[in-house]
Amino acid sequence: MRRQSIIGASLAVAVAMSLSACGGDSGGESNTVRVTLANHVWTENVKQALPAFEKETGLKVEITQLGEDQLSDQYNVKLNAGSSDIDVMMYRPLQEGKLFAKNKYLTDLTDQVAANKDWDFSDFQSGPAEATTYEGKPVGVPIITEQEVLYYRKDLLEKAGLSGPPKTLDELKAAATKIKEAEPGVAGFVARTGKSAAVTQFSSFLYSFGGDFVDSAGKATVNSDAAKQAYAYYGGLIKDTGPANVSTDMGWPEAMAIFTQGQAAFYTEANSLYKNATDPAKSKVSDQVGFAPFPAGPAGSKPYSIPSWALGINDNSENKANAWKFIEWATGKDQTLVQQKSGVPGARSSVWANPEGTSTFPKDMVAAIEASTQGGVGHDRPVVVKVPESREIVGQPIVDAITGKDAAASADTANTAFQKFLDDEAK
């Protein structure tokens, strides 16, 4: 309770500091801003800060808070119907962003982001900013970010005579192999294995081998030489150094459990989940966990660096000016700093450069994130309208490689299916 009150007080201070950037005439629009948000610690922090924001601006913020599935269902119904009773919407840029932008559910924010130099849109990291842009126009503002990093066991590395975490994928394979051979019952490497769930984490391997899901012309490339190498590497690493009788249906909870129970030396995963590994209440190896940048492949270290959530304005809203005031405040430098100190990784470069903004994160995690944002790729799955269907297609070669099937042949089959999917979507 004391920690919550401290965070609440800090948030209130941040509101007061940042409100000067939220001025402007509302143009006779409603003083009530209707905001739909997902269940997330970011949302809880914003709710604590709202009273001060409302007092200073004279606006009233009505929040509808929903779980991810409920949120998607509500958007599907209301946005398809052209409803105007949502002003601000929290959405997943890489899951539904292209669908929303293509269907013109999201307002073009070009004028808004350029109007306030102190708010400074250029301060947002390039990967997240790219993911919230459609056809060259900003349609959202990133609020929560993720990068893929390497989790590892310090004690197992020391026992194996390794001076530090692997810097390349070749070194990762060698280290994982060595530790598995030396430590009975301990996997060298673990990661997601489910056909759809693994796609996002596999993406960093794909990019680091020099591949991508599509080329610059929008054609499927999951059977390029680079992609075939990436599929074979990822699947082979799990097959050869992973847990015995490994399941091919693991998402992050299952893979994380193996790592936190002390049953794996290396694990690649989203940085946003790190507290599961460092919390003694959740992890048997909490005091031995280290973090490192994603290992470099033939094309270098190219992990994804994405916004998992963003804020946008419903294009049918009749209260856009006040909706922007809320977004401008909620994504400002002061508010982002307080959010990040409470454990929510933001998208502002200045906050990451501020020692106060990284004070609550492990030092090696900060270094890993900084490295990731420099060469990070702004998507972790195919950027399409029907994201779930695409993940099922491009994820099949991952499962096939893990089970010892021909990864190259599977990639060829997947590429044919994925190209048909892209062609159908373009009609």
UniProtKB/TrEMBL annotation:
Question: Which keywords fit this entry according to its UniProt record?
Answer: Signal
Q: Which residues form the signal peptide?
A: 1-23
One Pfam family hit = SBP_bac_1
User: Is the keyword Amino-acid biosynthesis assigned to this protein?
Assistant: no
CDD domains in the record, alphabetically?
PBP2_TMBP_like (cd13585)
PROSITE patterns documented for this protein: PROKAR_LIPOPROTEIN (PS51257)
Q: Which named protein is this?
A: Sugar ABC transporter substrate-binding protein
Q: Which organism is it from?
A: Nonomuraea glycinis
